[in-house]
Amino acid sequence: MHYLLASRGRRQLDLLTGTPTLYAFDFDGTLARIVRRHQDARLARPIREWLVELGKRAFTAVISGRSVADLHIRVAGAVPHLIGNHGLEGLHAAPQVLRQARETCGAWKRQVENGFSSELARAGVLVEDKTYSLAFHYRIAGRKRAAREAVFTMLAELHPLPRILIGKDIVNVIPAGAPHKGVALLELMHQLNLRAALYVGDDETDEDVFSLSDARIVTARIGKKKTTAAKFFLVRQSEITLLLRYLVHAYDNNERPTESDSVGPSGG
Fold it and tell me: Fewer Cβ close by (within 10 Å): the C or N end of the chain?
């Protein structure tokens, strides 16, 4: 992996600004910092302002596990293209696909409520119904290992078996075969007739994008990790502000942030 804000990464960013490009971001842990209660996640003011500025110059999107309705509240117009439920919601999916996903998640929720709600509550697990997927949060659990074990014990009993996406102190379940983040990114690029994309994410739920074999897509992960398929990394979530600012300056062809503005490794 290479540091996105060092020389090699900046050269790649400069190339993107010279072609029709989509700039897409995960929300939690990428545009917004991870917080104890997922309901409290918000865009910091500088990130919101730079997103708006970038959106005046290029196409921007959020591709998140949150529902589109939830994203609308938190993004509040800063980004025009919102895709939720890990890629399933927000791209005019076929009605039968959405109906099947909604019915499947409804069946899972009934199974959870009827057979596992007490165990999950005792373990400190919060169940979030996102209509087309379910999320099991255990960030506030006193014993996270026990909470996670309770979640996976329950998941083994669900029918039909779900696809499982593991995030940071959260386990997401989506219908098997549903469109994922990688499919959503490619579809949005097609709809907007764009030739390139930058995608930034922070955890295992973003590997569906990172692992795409498509030279048009530049991928970056928050935090360096040996096992990721992402090509570049940022050291920490707060560096999103530096990235957005650099892109806006690059589009304007003004004086760009200097190396001293960057926080993180100086090597490529």
Answer: C
From residue 124, give the alpha-carbon distance in Å to each of 1, 61, 140: 36, 33, 7
Phi and psi for 128 in degrees, rounded to 5? -115, 120
Residue type, 93: A
CA neighbours within 13 Å on the CB side: how many for 7? 3
Count Cβ atoms within 10 A of the Cβ of residue 145 and give its class: 0-12 exposed, 13-18 middle, 19 or more buried: exposed
Residue type, 37: R
**Overall pTM > 0.85:** yes
> Stretch 243-268: mean pLDDT, rounded?
66
| Tokens at 90, concatenated | 């927000």
Alpha-helical regions (H) of the chain: 7-16, 45-55, 68-75, 95-115, 117-123, 144-155, 181-192, 207-210, 240-252
Asked if 174 and 85 touch (Cβ cutoff 8 Å), the reply is yes
B/e letters for 176-210, b = 16+ CB within 10 Å, e = fewer, are eebbbbbbbbbbbbeeeebebbbbbbbbbbbbbbb
Residue 56's Cβ-count burial label (10 Å; 0-12, 13-18, 19+) is exposed
Edge-first strand order for the sheet with 163-166 is 126-129, 134-137, 170-174, 163-166
Which pair of structure tokens corresponds to residue 8?
């090699």
Domains and CATH numbers, the chain: 2-92+179-261 (3.40.50.1000), 95-174 (3.30.70.1020)
Burial class (CB in 10 A: 0-12, 13-18, 19+), 8: middle
> Residue 53 has which token pair?
């500025």
